[in-house]
Specification:
With 103 residues, the protein is of the alpha+beta class. It has a domain of 65 residues: SH3 type barrels. It contains two helices and five strands, in the order ββββαβα.
Length: 103
């Protein structure tokens, strides 16, 4: 049975329960770069990857609902709707409206 090549964006689960996502695959070099849910990046040799897949130590998984583990996104902190800084940000962004970088 031929094992499917890993694709960027696919999620997998190790037998230890850790979730990881394929972020790069170099078939010429035979390496797979993954990022764990906690943000840690690791590189696998293609043969090691295939061996773990064949043994069941690494299996396809669904992407997590809460993907913020691998990116430093802070949860909403409950700021009031009328934060004065929000108005400042909007005004600064409005000054760039109509700017054509290619003129």
């Amino acid at each position: 049975m031929s094992m499917q090549q890993p694709e960027i964006g696919e999620w997998y689960r190790l037998s230890s329960g850790e979730l990881l996502e394929v972020v790069a695959f170099d078939s010429a070099d035979g390496t797979i770069e993954v990022q764990y849910f906690d943000g840690t990046v690791e590189e696998f040799d293609l043969e090691d990857w295939r061996s773990q897949r064949a043994s069941g130590a690494l299996e396809v998984a669904e992407a997590p609902e809460d993907w913020s583990g691998s990116v430093d996104v802070e949860p909403e902190d409950g700021r009031a709707e009328s934060d004065p800084n929000d108005e400042d940000r909007r005004l600064r962004a409005d000054r760039l409206d109509g700017l054509d970088l290619f003129e």
